[in-house]
Write a structure and sequence with these properties.
Strand content: 25-35%
Radius of gyration: 23 Å
Distance between the termini: 50 Å
Low-confidence stretches: none
Number of domains: 1
Structural class: alpha+beta
Strand order of the largest sheet: 3-2-1-6-4-5
Length: 197
């Protein structure tokens, strides 16, 4: 009897924890160099982690041993990726998984500021003739904000994209388990292991 109560309480507690939303905020910038920042928050902000894009360290040199090992490691890694992609049914199953994950996510807000200039000013004008209707269309959605500015003087691409996405883990649990245990995923994992040997 006590065992049943203990197991039921544990399952109920786990279900309640998985019902707490997971918030992902991100910022992607390109102004000369590419920078990205991701922040993951759970339990109403009490638990979280920040992921920043690694900075390049100029002048860092690799030793001769590392230089010798790099091509073989890269070749094995590439072979594993190709084996997974060629695995029967995996791409279709992965697309279904991505679609299911996206459908469960709630987009709280997203802002995109873009400054674009192409080599030819006429091409810049043509590009913005395509972008402007999208700006007007997204203007009707308060959660989306798109600001686009042309630069006819020089070739340039600057962007600042930031947003926040909310996901409920309890909705994802079944989707992730079904994806990991699907025959297509198991075949892909087996192919990756074989390719790395």
């Amino acid at each position: 009897m006590w065992l049943v109560i203990l197991v039921s309480s544990s399952l109920l507690g786990m279900l309640l924890l998985l019902s707490i939303p997971l918030d992902l905020s991100f910022r992607i910038e390109r102004d000369g160099e590419f920078r990205s920042r991701f922040a993951l928050r759970w339990l109403f902000g009490l638990v979280g982690t920040d992921l920043d894009s690694p900075r390049k360290q100029p002048g860092a040199k690799r030793g001769p041993a590392a230089a010798d090992k790099k091509p073989s490691k890269r070749k094995r890694r590439l072979g594993s990726v190709l084996a997974v992609l060629r695995s029967k049914g995996f791409l279709a199953r992965a697309l279904v998984f991505v679609r299911q994950v996206v459908s469960t996510a709630s987009l709280e807000k997203i802002t995109l500021e873009l400054r674009l200039g192409l080599a030819d000013p006429a091409e810049t004008g043509f590009a913005f003739a395509l972008i402007c209707p999208l700006v007007v269309f997204l203007g009707g959605y308060p959660r989306f904000r798109l600001v686009a500015e042309p630069d006819f003087d020089e070739e340039k691409l600057e962007l600042d994209c930031q947003g926040q996405i909310r996901v409920f883990p309890v909705r994802l649990a079944g989707i992730i388990i079904a994806f990991l245990l699907s025959p297509a995923t198991l075949r892909a994992l087996k192919a990756a292991v074989v390719a790395r040997r």
